[in-house]
Amino acid sequence: MGEVPLNGLYRYDFEKPAAELSHRLHELRKASTCDPAALRVLESQLEGLKRKIYANLSAWQRVQLARHPLRPYTLDYVELILSDFIELHGDRLFGDDKALIGGLAKLEDRNVLVIGHQKGRDTRQNLMRNFGMANPEGYRKAIRLMRMAAKARLPILVFIDTPGAYPGIGAEERGQAHSIAYNLREMSRLKTPIFLCVIGEGGSGGALGVGLGDWVAMLEHAYYSVISPEGCAMILWRDRAKAPEAAEALKLTAPDLLQLGLVDEMLDEPLGGAHHDPAAVAQRIKASILRFFKSVEGLPPEELVSRRYARFRRYGVYTTDVSSTLSQPS
Predict the structure, then answer these.
(1) How far apart are CA 185 and CA 187, in angstroms?
(2) pTM
(3) Among the four residues 230, 264, 286, 308, which has the most C-beta atoms within 10 Å?
(4) What is the predicted pLDDT for the residue at 8?
(5) Cα 288 to Cα 131: distance, rounded to the nearest angstrom
(6) 13: helix, coil or strand?
(7) Same domain (yes/no): 273, 184
């Protein structure tokens, strides 16, 4: 990712106090007559301020952090976690979708297949990557590679980070909805372990198109939702400005989804988000992957698929105590 510019770390209104104090600290460090005692005081103040800000984030503020343009993307984590990455291209039907990348790599001494959404850092890259919004050919490429991995008994790693599947006319003409639905069916049958990690945005069908697996980890400030807060606000109130209220109602944050049982693990981020220390976050993801591999080691493929099926059958199941509303016999 390179060196992160100081003025880019704190981007949002709720981060302004930390941005101002961080700037003062930066200027003090540059001064030729820097007072070590004053430096330590400011560092302590900044740490305390950051803890106060990031300990009480609203759902909308977490969504903003998930969208931070300096946040690590899939290829950043590939570089930090894996080795010998060889990208594979194309769906063998239409073309290659650069919004959804895939390839072979090594995790320590184990061969794996990695799939993930990829956004861009600037305008040129975002146009090339289509802002991380995959077309049908991206989902077809993904399932082609996953089938290849299953045939070779390679575990699959998936990094989810997309605002949603691309909603353009061309994408719909080429079967966007069918591609996503087809992937869901086929991923449910793959006889190889599938590890998922939501690293940023987990938007609707765009995320689900590669999002069916055996273990779902989620970064602390990522979100995962059936619709974006802005889209929900437009439907309910016809007003995008209501997105913060929609974010609260959607229960899309990692703590919410962990409590609901829709994700298996929340991975902590540094104060301020993953972009403040990508290497530390990468190591937490790697540790989670290795724990998952250990948990399924030696498991017969049929048992793996059976557990995956049972996992999704549990979603949405709830009970209601109606005993207090029933009339008592006389």
Answers:
(1) 6
(2) 0.90
(3) 308
(4) 74
(5) 27
(6) helix
(7) yes
C-alpha angle 273-162-2 in degrees, rounded to nearest 5: 45
Determine the pLDDT at residue 315.
82
Measuring CA to CA, which residue among 196, 130, 123, 212 is closest to residue 163? Answer: 130
Q: Which residues have CB under 8 Å from 25's CB, separation 6+?
A: 39, 42, 43, 46
Enclosing domain of residue 136: 63-313
**DSSP assignment string, 294-318:** HHHTT--HHHHHHHHHHHHHTTT--
pLDDT of residue 330: 47
CA distance 129 to 143: 19
Nearest alpha-carbon partner for 139 in 78, 213, 194, 205: 205
Q: Are residues 18 and 72 in the same domain?
A: no
The pLDDT, as a whole number, for residue 32 is 64
Instruction: Answer yes or no: do 242 and 138 share one domain.
Output: yes
The count of domains in the chain is 2
Take residue 301 and report the two structure tokens written for it.
């493929």
pLDDT, residue 141, reads 98
> Which domain CATH number covers 71?
3.90.226.10
Split the chain (330 residues) into runs of 10 and give each run's mean pLDDT. Answer: 57 89 82 76 88 93 95 97 97 95 96 97 94 96 97 97 95 95 96 97 93 96 94 94 96 94 95 94 98 94 94 78 55
Assign 1 to helix, strand or coil.
coil
- Predicted local distance difference test score (pLDDT) of residue 37: 79
Domain membership of residue 330 (yes or no) is: no
Distance CA 131, CA 168 (A): 13
Nearest CA-CA partner of 213 in 239, 233, 184: 184
Q: Among candidates 149, 159, 183, which has minimal Cα distance to 289?
A: 159
